[in-house]
Amino acid sequence: QVQLVESGGGLVQPGGSLTLSCIVLGREFGLYDMAWYRQAPGKQREFVASVTSRNLTIRTNSVRGRFTISRDNAKNTLFLQMNSLKPEDTAVYYCNTVNKDWPWGQGTQVTVSS
């Protein structure tokens, strides 16, 4: 059974930074294309960014230039570096494969507020 464990969220002021981590347990994730998603209150879960097994990245328009996705295959860990955070980035952030193959984790809450 694969388990996804997200961490690193918190309360930050607009313009601040956070780095999220996602550890994948129970599966070697090096061959998978991975992604970050987020779900804001009252909205559907949406794609944020992805990184392929060959380290090619895609980011949704709203985070381009501010967020960076990366991975450490040796540690089975996915990262999301978030800079210049805005109130509209407030959401619960989740990781999964780009095909959403695995059970969702609990996510990590990011709140951007002054």
The best one-word shape is globular
Helix percent band: under 10%
For the largest sheet, list the strands in their spatial order: 2-10-9-4-5-6
Distance between the termini: 40 Å
What string gives the helices and strands in order? EEEEEEEEEE
Largest beta sheet, briefly?
Answer: 6 strands, mixed
Helix count?
0
The secondary-structure class comes to: mainly beta
In terms of DSSP E residues, the strand content is: over 45%
Spatial extent as radius of gyration: 13 Å
Overall mean pLDDT score? 96
Low-confidence stretches: none
Multimeric status of the protein: single chain
Describe it.
A six-stranded mixed beta sheet has the order 2-10-9-4-5-6, with no helix packed on it. Strands 1-3-8-7 form a four-stranded antiparallel beta sheet, with no helix packed on it. The model has no long low-confidence stretch (mean pLDDT 96). Strand 4 (34-39) and strand 5 form a beta hairpin. The chain contains no helices and ten strands. With 114 residues, it is mainly β.
Keyphrases for this structure?
114 residues; mainly beta; four-stranded antiparallel sheet
Element layout with pairings:
Blueprint: E1 3-7, E2 10-12, E3 18-25, E4 34-39, E5 46-51, E6 57-59, E7 67-72, E8 77-82, E9 91-97, E10 108-112
Parallel strand pairs: 2-10
Antiparallel strand pairs: 1-3, 3-8, 4-5, 4-9, 5-6, 7-8, 9-10
